[in-house]
Amino acid sequence: MATQPIPTVSAHPEQQYLGLMRQIWTAGSERSDRTGVGTRSIAGAMLRYDLGDGAMPLLTTKRVYWKTATREMLWFLTGETNIRPLVLQGVKIWNEWPHARYVKETGKEIALEDFVQRIADDEAFAQKWGDLGPVYGKQWVDWPTYRRREDGLFEKGQGINQVADVVESLRNNPGSRRHIIEGWNVAELDQMALPPCHKTYQFHVADDRLNCMLYQRSCDVALGLPFNLWSAALLTRMLAQQVGLEPGELIWMGGDVHLYLNHAHLIEEQLTRTPSGHPTLEITRKPETIFDYKIEDFVVHDYAPLPPIKAPVAV
To answer: If pLDDT is split at 50, 70 and 90, which confidence band does 152 have?
Structure first.
């Protein structure tokens, strides 16, 4: 099939996303995958969004729960890797992975809802079964280091806070080409519930504007990408505020960009819908550091999306 062109930026910004979805669904290669569900996939894609004047890549052709994505981002910035803080806020997006591990390792069948309730109610149970391993936030704010002792053995050293380092480098050396937050720690991938999909963030300063390039190695376009776009734009807005720059452009780049075959109803329905409105984000205060934002600090204006479209997460 002929590749469908992604609309130019002169169209409504959301048409880029819909064009990518249409391209994958009509021209992507069907492939087997880790989950066993099957996908249609293309290799390589790019989307660009201008974040000026409060603009955000928040989809309107279906409701995106931006507060859930924001709570996840704030959780990443704590360095936490246990789902319990998310569960206590009603955030469900990471629940399936520890639930699957519990069932596999114990042989006990337990409904997902019951497992999550026990995570909320029983701190000791959550400590044992709610941890995801050294995922995103751990790498972002506590990348492990090791040092050789006098006896020749290695011991753990001071972790590296990549986020804090990027804030300082943006302030003190804005022209640097090393403003990077990296999640792909090869030595610890096998300890993670899910290796990082949105793995590399690079920031670029030009004309007092902060641009973000995000490389995502693997992207579930129907369910994951709406959250990923919001979160990357949010992080860019927070960093820009902290270092006294204006938000610039978000440039998203995907590697294995795919749609799951069991999301057909979502895809076909969403592709019939038309984007409307231009949602904006207001950050109501400037906290002392990048790590001190609260969910109450964020207000979205002019967001009137079409209804959500539910689909299963492939684990």
So the answer is: confident
